[in-house]
Amino acid sequence: MKKRKICFISGSRAEYGMLYFLMKKVHSNKKLKLQLLVTGMHLSKKYGLTFREIQRDGFKIDKKITLPLLKSSSFAITKSTGTGVIKIGKSLHRMNPDLLVLVGDRFEIFAAAFAGLINRIPIAHIHGGEITKGSFDDALRHSITKMSNWHFVANKKYKKRVIQLGENPNHVFISGGLGVDTVKKTKFLKKNILEKKLKFKFDKKNLMITFHPVTLDKESGLKSLKLILRAISKLKNTKLFFTLPNADPDNHIIRKIINNFANNKKLNSNVFISLGRINYLSILKNVDAVVGNSSSGLLEAPSLKVATINIGDRQEGRLKSKSVIDCDSSEDSITKAIKKIYTKKFQKKLKKCKNPNDSGNASEKIFKIISSKKLPVDTKKNFFDLKNNL
To answer: Per the count of CB atoms within 10 A, which of 103, 267, 318, 360 is most buried?
Structure first.
């Protein structure tokens, strides 16, 4: 019996962390053949050469596709996207998978979706229907939805939005968020082992700071970052954990600002290029809050009962748990939010918070469909018009 070839494409550390358990299920199934194409930040020294973690996890990488990521101007990202379309398209033509699995909204995933579409390969897209007002990922995500055949969304609200984009309701499945699944299934490192492994000590209070470029902002959110740093520089008995940004326009400026800040030894800071899935989630479990504008604060932190201080509009539009405190880009607002997370009232609310992306067993739900559901005969789709189907 011919094995169903399911091809996963990953270009970033966060994306792979979410896909890990789903890939593992495909890899261990005798009726399926896992194909893995790795690209983007995974293959860049600047971003930690994270493809090594994939190999350590026991996965064979079928194809490595390098992209020009040394520079972070808008033109450089455009060039990387174009290069991705050409190289990924060539590889998919050779690998000829039965199904292409993509998660999220990054530019290299957009390139992969376009290449898959042109190669007439059915696409299963995970985490569609979401909104992030402050980044161009928003437009990329919706574009990937239109190029895909099956859709796995985190919440019923996202399902409605994918249908609103003209997708057949029978092909939109509420799976829940893969980030939630990862949190529930990961075996965390104990605090003392984590400290020894990464050579640091937790303090009385601990914050994780992750700030990515606000790609639709002319200044890429640099003003917000500087105000965050000004606010946290005044904290006492607080350990600061920084994770560096993704390969988006102007990320090099943000990296420089963070590294310069952390070089002041009085500020009790640690900066990580890439932690890997287990290390990252183990630290996240032990901090008091995630501060910045990362999706992790909305998708994963609530499942660990960890607070999120979400700054600016980069994530505006996503569903949020009661563990998330939205604040504007002002030092006063950020300072008040940090004080709030330590109050008894907020801590009580935090213990009862629910993750809106949690509908249970996302990996299993997605696996069941991609492994057994009849594949589209071709990639042609009818536009599902709401006016005609109400």
So the answer is: 103
Whether residue 216 is predicted with pLDDT greater than 80 in this model: the reply is no
* Structure tokens, 346: 């907020």
Structure confidence at residue 213 as a pLDDT band (50, 70, 90): confident
Nearest to 207 by CA among 290, 318, 101, 300: 290
| C-alpha dihedral, 263 to 268 to 272 to 276, nearest 10° | 170
- Identify whether the C-beta of residue 385 lies closer than 8 Å to the C-beta of residue 163: no
> For residue 376, what are its two tokens?
């589209």
Residue 388 has pLDDT above 70, yes or no: no
Q: What is the DSSP string of 18-43?
A: HHHHHHHHHHH-TTEEEEEEEEGGGG
Q: Report whether 209 contacts 232 (CB < 8 A).
A: yes
d(C-alpha 2, C-alpha 91), whole Å: 21
Q: What is the DSSP code (8-state) at residue 151? A: E
In angstroms, the CA 198 to CA 242 distance is 13
State mean pLDDT over 24-39: 97
Q: How many residues in total does the chain contain?
A: 390
The one-letter code for the residue type at 46 is K
DSSP 171-213: GEEE---HHHHHHHH--PPPHHHHHHHHT----SEEEEEE---
Q: Using alpha carbons, select from 69, 65, 63 the residue that is nearest to residue 47.
A: 69
First to last CA, the chain: 42
Q: Parallel, antiparallel, or unpaired: how do β-strands 99-103 and 4-10 relate? A: parallel
CA distance 8 to 150: 14
pLDDT for 101 beyond 60: yes
Domains and their CATH numbers in the chain: 4-176+360-388 (3.40.50.2000), 189-352 (3.40.50.2000)
Tokens of 12: 């970033």
Residue 293 CB coordination number (10 Å)? 29
pTM (2 decimals)?
Answer: 0.92
Q: Please state, as a whole number, how many other Cβ atoms lie within 10 Å of the Cβ of residue 287.
A: 21
Token digits for 330? Answer: 């002002």
288 conformational bin, left if phi > 0, alpha if psi -120 to 50, beta if neither: alpha
Q: Residue 268, exposed/middle/buried by CB under 10 A (0-12, 13-18, 19+)?
A: middle
